[in-house]
Amino acid sequence: EQEKLAGRRCVDQFGGIPFLAINMGGKAAEKDWGAQRWTELLAALSKTHSGYGLLILGAAEDSARARAVSGNWPSRVVDACGRLAPRESAAALRFASIFIGHDSGPLHLAAVSDVPCVGLFGGFNRPKKWHPYAKAQRIIHRMERMSAITVDEVAKAVSALVPPQG
After folding, report:
1. What is the pLDDT of residues 119-159, one digit of tens each?
2. φ, ψ for residue 97 (rounded to 5)?
3. How many whole angstroms separate alpha carbon 37 and alpha carbon 136?
4. What confidence tens digit (pLDDT) does each residue in 17-37 have?
């Protein structure tokens, strides 16, 4: 119950507006899509999904990157990097409109919470080995490398799962 309460307190900062959730961090450099692509994705989504808040999950060391890439987000941003334990993150994710992230713990937490997911996968693992099984998901897997995934295809995948609002 304490973990659910912590997750709820985190998302209460949105004041009831819907929100997107992302995770950009990770232990393996091969899974990193790059700060520039995240910045470009958020710029693209800010034109179509500006009515959504933005929840950023990750480890404490991801917080500086979170601030850097979300600086121009037009709505409320909650940087929860390093502030929530994994089960608290899962509790917060239950309220998200969508989760966007690479092959990571938060992606799988969102999937088991029945949150629509856009999962980004590079050549670190073979296709379908670690893909989540969410009801609504778009998996973008490029074996050549993560950087082969374009901002446009991720933005389109997001729009296919959650309606533009702004």
Report:
1. 998 877 666 666 677 678 888 999 898 899 999 999 999 99
2. -75, -30
3. 23
4. 999 999 997 677 777 899 999
CA distance 150 to 152: 5
Closest CA to 99 of 77, 87, 116, 74: 116
- pTM exceeds cut of 0.85: yes
Contact, 140 vs 156, CB < 8 A? no
Find the helix packing angle between 105-112 and 86-93, rounded to 10°. 50
Name the residue among 157, 13, 118, 153 with its Cα closest to residue 106: 118
Dihedral of CA atoms 64, 67, 68, 72 in degrees, nearest 10, equals 180
DSSP conformational letter for 115: -
Q: What would the pLDDT profile of 48-61 be if each residue is shown by its tens digit?
A: 999 999 999 999 99
The values of phi and psi at residue 58, to 5°, are 160, -175
Kindly give, in sequence order, each residue whose CB lies less than 8 Å from that of residue 142, ignoring residues fewer than 6 positions away: 121, 122, 123, 148, 149
